[in-house]
Write a structure and sequence with these properties.
three-stranded antiparallel β-sheet, alpha+beta, Arc Repressor Mutant, subunit A, 3 helices
Length: 95
């Protein structure tokens, strides 16, 4: 997959992989999504050109919210208002 990652005709496939990942794991912070996609495609880390390719592939079709810790992207068809809040490490108490 790495060899085709930057091909324009690979964008629909990349979009499908991103949407499937968000349906399975979402919502995700945008930078985490980029890291996950980079690793799935065999890149050791998310380079600037990887980020730009992924953002080009999906930005218009994702719901997004901006939180203190970054921008979160949401699975298609699951607007943020319909999802439960995600607990963070600061809200957990030790036993």
């Amino acid at each position: 997959m790495q060899a085709r990652f930057f091909d324009f005709d690979y964008l629909p496939t990349l979009r499908s992989i991103i949407f499937a990942t968000l349906r399975q794991r979402g919502p995700l912070r945008k930078d985490v999504l980029v890291q996950v996609m980079s690793r799935q495609h065999g890149f050791g880390r998310a380079r600037k050109d990887n980020r730009e390719t992924m953002i080009t592939a999906v930005v218009p079709d994702l719901d997004r919210t901006t939180e203190e810790v970054g921008v979160f992207v949401w699975p298609r068809g699951s607007p943020p208002s319909n999802l439960l809040p995600i607990p963070n490490s600061h809200s957990r108490r030790s036993a």
